[in-house]
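wait is this the right file?? whatever heres the structure
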């Protein structure tokens, strides 16, 4: 992939063994060869996703025919090369990078990015300021500071980002905020970046469970449920604090999911972390049973809640039944330790609007039409479930519903090693469901 290659180059330049630098320079030029230079087109300044990808058609469709976010991902890494390894980049390649920064900013400004698209917005603000300084475009610097202020205004309302509690995209947020903090493109970005980065880590440390080596849900955007079996970029940052043995990170000698994001590791290693000891300590040692709730947005009102104990954790999100079905959103999640030391998990699949709230030993859910729970036990075991009781290894749950208006079914998914438990309304009206944790 074109984007993964620039992260690979950073790794080559860090190692500098044998032909690493030569191969890195070849790779940079290959990446730049795949940038689109077509002013007026919506894909101007972005890059092919892979070398085999054809040019976008005349009526190009975002995400289908091109990825607009490659501008920010690739060009922040290109800029990082110029900062950290200036003596390794020949002048002619430096000039090509300068052109790439110009094309990317032109295309990104024409896109009209929203400040609540958190991970891309944070990189965008940095890119505007840094490219403006490099290319003598003071208007870009002004726009970058204005956009950074818009991001901070949204954040400061509840000390949260709109893309809340994402094991992947929190990792990208930390990268972007680390750029603001470490390289200080302007005093304003340095100040705001430091504040938001520290607050983000404070929030992460509330949700992270060092014994289960996972983030407690709910997840606004997550691809997988277990950071020990799938790469989440946030896990790479926690790796720096905990070390490899207890990191929320897969064994790279075995199969693991979402493997392409392991390429992001050189970015994490270069930026590094600068955190108070109390945050580091919470990421290394479990601080004891705790529960909390957090307002994410006020309009519509979204509230996350969580409860963590030594071998169990559950997270939930109430969205005022305003959030439509979205595959990456997991409004209710449960993780617990299985007898063999692996992680079992349950998630409510977001097929319909769901409101969920958790307090110690109790989960309250309101759902429209139907709700499906996906259960993973890392192995097939006989199902011991009914409409009002679930029993799994090391976990027992009792369920209460409006029994006269909710029907229940269960099914196996052998391909995914999961079970699905479905409750469906017979009245087409919002239904309540209570889960008690025994």
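ok assuming it is, sequence goes like this
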């Amino acid at each position: 992939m074109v984007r993964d290659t620039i992260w690979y180059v950073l790794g080559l330049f860090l190692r500098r063994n044998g032909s690493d630098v030569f191969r890195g320079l070849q790779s940079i030029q290959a990446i730049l060869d795949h940038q689109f230079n077509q002013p007026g087109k919506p894909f101007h300044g972005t890059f092919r996703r892979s070398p085999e990808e054809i040019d976008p058609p005349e009526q190009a469709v975002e995400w289908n025919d091109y990825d607009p976010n490659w501008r920010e991902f690739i060009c922040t890494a290109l800029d990082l090369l110029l900062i950290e390894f200036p003596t390794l980049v020949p002048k002619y390649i430096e000039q090509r990078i300068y052109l790439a920064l110009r094309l990317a900013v032109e295309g990104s400004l024409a896109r009209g990015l929203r400040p609540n698209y958190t991970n891309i917005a944070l990189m965008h603000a940095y890119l505007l300021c840094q490219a403006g300084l490099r290319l003598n475009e003071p208007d870009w610097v002004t726009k970058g500071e204005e956009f950074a202020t818009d991001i901070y205004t949204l954040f400061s309302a509840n000390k949260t980002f709109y893309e809340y509690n994402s094991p992947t995209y929190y990792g990208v947020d930390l990268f972007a905020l680390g750029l603001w903090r470490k390289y200080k493109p302007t005093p304003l970005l340095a100040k705001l970046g430091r504040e938001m980065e520290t607050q983000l880590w404070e929030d992460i440390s509330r949700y992270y469970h060092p014994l289960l080596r996972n983030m407690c849900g709910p997840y606004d955007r997550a691809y997988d449920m277990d950071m020990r079996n799938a790469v989440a970029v946030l896990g790479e940052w926690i790796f720096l604090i905990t070390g490899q043995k207890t990191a929320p990170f897969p064994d790279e000698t075995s199969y693991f999911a979402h493997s392409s994001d392991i390429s992001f590791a050189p970015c994490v290693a270069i930026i590094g972390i600068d955190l108070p000891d109390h945050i580091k300590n919470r990421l290394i040692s479990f601080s004891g049973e705790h529960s909390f709730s957090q307002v994410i947005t006020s309009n519509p009102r979204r509230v996350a809640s969580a409860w963590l104990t030594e071998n169990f954790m559950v997270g939930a999100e109430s969205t005022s039944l305003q959030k439509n079905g979205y595959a990456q959103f997991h409004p209710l999640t449960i993780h617990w330790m299985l007898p063999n030391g692996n992680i079992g998990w349950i998630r409510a699949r977001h097929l319909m609007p769901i409101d969920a709230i958790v307090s110690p030993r109790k989960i309250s859910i309101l759902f429209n039409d139907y709700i499906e729970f996906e259960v993973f036990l890392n192995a097939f075991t006989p199902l011991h479930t009914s409409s009002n009781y679930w029993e799994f290894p090391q976990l027992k749950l009792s369920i209460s519903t409006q029994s006269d208006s909710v029907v229940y079914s269960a099914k196996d998914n052998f391909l995914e090693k999961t079970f699905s438990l479905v409750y469906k309304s017979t009245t087409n009206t919002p239904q309540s469901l209570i889960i008690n944790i025994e």
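Residues 2-282 form a domain with the Glycosyltransferase fold (CATH 1.50.10). so i think its the right one actually
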